[in-house]
Amino acid sequence: MNDLWSACSVQNKSANWFKQVAQRAEALGQQRLRVGVTGLSGAGKTTFITSLINQLENHRKGLLARRAPFDRLESVRWQRESVEQPFPYLESLSALSSNPARWPESTADLSRVVIDLRFQPQGLLRKVQPVKQLRLEILDYPGEWLLDLPLLQLDYGQWCEQMADWLEQEPRRSLAGPLRDQLLEVDPAAPADLQQLAELKAAWSDFLMRCRTEAGLSRNQPARFLQPGSDVAAEMLEFVPLLRANRHSIAPADSWFGICSGRFDYYRDFVVRAFYDEHFRHLDQQVLLVDMLGPMDAGEAALVDLRDAMEAVLSSFDYGRSGLLARLLRFRPRIRRLAFCATKVDKVSPEQQRAVQQCLEDLLLDRLAEVRHGGVEVRGLPLSAIRATRQEGDNLIAGLEGQDGWVRYRPGSIPAHLPQSLQLDSPELLPLRPPPGLHRSEPFPHYRMDDLVAWIIEGAQL
Ligand SMILES: Nc1nc2c(ncn2[C@@H]2O[C@H](COP(=O)(O)OP(=O)(O)OP(=O)(O)O)[C@@H](O)[C@H]2O)c(=O)[nH]1
Ligand SMILES: [Mg+2]
């Protein structure tokens, strides 16, 4: 009724006045949607965001053209300037469209994308309603940073106990090798040797890297040792777990324990907490990308670690358990929707893609139920941001990274559900290169990017 009244009265005014009102309404009417995109290292974040901008820029040609509300999308502007820590869109495009095509470079910091969308209004009043504007703000950040959330509950001594426990178990025990003995030798109460501490810290970072690359482990703490980001002073990252320390340890300020616990406190209070305060708390929605196929290929230990890591990541979205998160963070998070996506599913045949997503959801059944129970709407989608394979009968055809020509292969089996034992036949994955001929002005081939983009903006009043 209100709309109708204002429509009638607006029609009676001069065209000029109408324009001014419409412009003002436009200025006031711009909606903002802040979407976080995260995932562990190599999950596919950069490729996903590049494809997302590309799909929006080419909304008239791709699958988006055929679905609402993109059929009313008038214009799309990716903001190139005046964005702090901008996402490397042009760099990613240039890698993907080079010959031979390359995947984008790995990234280690957060970055931002701002995209302005203008939609034609719909319905009877579309002639008098202003254009609907949506500002989509995307924050891309390493998922590993969320793995540090549990640190907010720990003091340094407790963290040392936890790390000692982790280092007793395989594969970390073997991967740590002599480093474990060196850390066991340090007397926490003795005066700290800063030179030796720097060497131990470097060795700890190497160990974390080996955990990731050699054993496919995901929980590598502190997360900023591998992905420091640009906002942390390097010397404040110089601490290690002292394996003889525990929650009851007390030691002078210049001791190993004193120095390491001071830096741990800084890390916990000014690095981990600051990320949640400054960035995470402003997000409306979250896209969480998971490379499920890699750990399925690597085997049981990698699946167990992925499960533990994703459980830790998902606890940042678990608002159900009597306000624990709000207490830890000192604010009430407001993320209401979470897209949870197995990525790179073009590596298996289209009939197997839903099974990959199902296996991922089987792995995290309880934690996803808790997130849903806490009031977050969860949508699961098997995704390929850029489709590198083509199907021919039962076979897939693709190019391999670093090689010319094409291979024809039949992906191994993917079970309909993840077995409880987490033991399965390896799906046998190949290192694929991106498809040839990608260009910024054409929509990239993909699986379900259109479903996901539509779901993301569903919440806006368009
Ligand atoms: N086949 C296929 N491979 C993909 C796709 N997306 C990503 N990849 C592969 O996964 C790798 C990592 O993708 P990125 O987009 O760099 O992942 P990321 O999460 O940004 O990684 P970091 O920046 O290292 O944290 C790429 O180099 C590709 O090998 C996809 O849609 N299909
Ligand atoms: Mg990246």
UniProtKB/TrEMBL annotation:
One short Pfam name that applies is DUF463
Q: Which Gene3D superfamilies match?
A: P-loop containing nucleotide triphosphate hydrolases
- PANTHER family in alphabetical order: ATPASE, ATPASE-RELATED
What name is this protein filed under? YcjX family protein
